Amino acid sequence: MSVEDRGFVFGDGVYEVLRSIGGKFFATRFHNERLTRSLKGVRIELAGKDSPECFTEIGRELLKENGLASGEATLYMQVTRGAATRAHYFPTPGVAPGIYISVAKFEPPAELRDRGAAAITHPDLRWGRCDLKTLNLLPNVLASQTAKEKGAFEAMLIRDGIVTEGAKTNFFGVVDGSLRTHPTDTHILPGITRAVLKDLAAEVRIDLEERPIRADEIPRLSELFLTGTTTDVMPVVQLDGAPVGNGKPGELTRRLQKVLLESLASGEGSD
Ligand code: PLP
User: 56, 106, 182, 228: which could form a disulfide with 72 (CB 3.0–4.6 Å)?
Assistant: First the structure.
């Protein structure tokens, strides 16, 4: 890829991460739809016959060629505005988007998911279009590093007194007995795992309210868990050093963790 690629120079691009189990990608259609939406949101047009579907097809070949068609792997696909002499506005005439696709072996953190993780709170310093999956991840990177330095798995981001999402995950919490998650708006990434879990919760008749959790409600959380493509359902048992609920993964968390794992293992919604 050129050093003049705008993804490299400006972070001018978007990306997706998919999970593959036994050579099959999970929720491909949702990821492809989100990639299309992100591209539209930042006004990058794919050239010729290129499409998210072509990219996942290439991903499938990469899995085979790299001995990753069995077991678990991740697919990373990135589209940038392409390479051009550095200038902030879009290149005129337009240039072909820069496309990068890779696969990597993935080992789920089973032990941590069972025991539950620690998290910290951190100011949400991101821009106003967090619903687009763009390469501009510096606030997420810095928050994640702070979490790591404090021995935590995730930083829960707080904007205007509201817990929006994690630096790399969405979250669900139980306040006064009700399961809640942030609604999809421009302040969070519409996570695919979040959407899948919302459907699964309805199937097993667990009520879910899409209503933000305020920072001042944190002490009333009896359960908390994170969701993401590689995170699945990760219980949070400690937040800013204090136990969440009784300091163990909660009952709803365990049920939803189980239904998601079953859904992943069944291969349903995978191709
Ligand atoms: N929120 C942010 C900021 C993320 O970066 C991610 C995943 O990368 C998520 C949420 C979870 O999204 P998904 O479930 O689609 O992996």
Answer: 106
DSSP 270: B
Buried b (16+ CB within 10 A) or exposed e, 160-196: eebbbbbbbbbbbbbbeeebbbbebeebbbbbbbbbb
Strands (E) across 199-250 are located at 209-210, 213-214, 221-228, 232-239, 242-243
Å from CA of 229 to ligand 1 middle: 7
d(CA 242, CA 119): 10
Structure tokens given for 4? 């003049």
Residue matched to tokens 């293992």: 265
Q: What is the pLDDT along the chain (271 residues), one digit of tens a residue?
A: 899 999 999 999 999 999 999 999 999 999 999 999 999 999 999 999 999 999 999 999 999 999 999 999 999 999 999 999 999 999 999 999 999 999 999 999 999 999 999 999 999 999 999 999 999 999 999 999 999 999 999 999 999 999 999 999 999 999 999 999 999 999 999 999 999 999 999 999 999 999 999 999 999 999 999 999 999 999 999 999 999 999 999 999 999 999 999 999 998 888 8
**Where does ligand 1 bind, in terms of residues with CB under 6 Å?**
17, 140, 165, 168-170, 189, 191-194, 227-229
